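Narrative of activities, Objective 1.

The group set out to show that a structural description can be obtained from nothing but a protein's sequence at a throughput compatible with the screening campaign. Below is one input-output pair from the validation batch, recorded exactly as produced.
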Amino acid sequence: FGCFSFVHHGSILLEKGASSKSGAVHFYLQGISDEFLKAVYDASTCLLAASEGEGFGLPLIEAARHGLPIIARDIAVFREVADTHAFYFSGKEPQDLAGAIQDWLALFHANRHPKSEGMPWLTWAQSADRLKRILTDEEWLYQITPEGEIRSRAPSVSTPDQEASHV
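Output recorded for this entry:
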């Protein structure tokens, strides 16, 4: 399971989709109203995304839309989605996470933590349009042939010599 916690002044306010061996109480936020989710964001200091396997990184986008700082596990999808707009941590031991939270809190109190404001994201419509262009207009970066060969599509960039020959 993934772990997405909303942190309120150093304590976990709510946790979504986590499993625990410690007996901690977890609140699963399935089917909640937009108003309730907004109240959770408003009461939170940051989003803690400790998932080890995430598909799209949507919780990071939701947090950024609400201006919430992000502490995220250092996995590819989170880097792709949040880039420099999140604080990243590695390791799988509790002390790794505890140390990362302490480091982030020091940055937060000095107002030097990464900010989620300005983090770019695509809307569902933009995402669907991008997928359509990839599928129909061949705007793909890689192609896998039926033989299993991976081909990279080189970007079409003209050189100054090519441009001069067209003048």
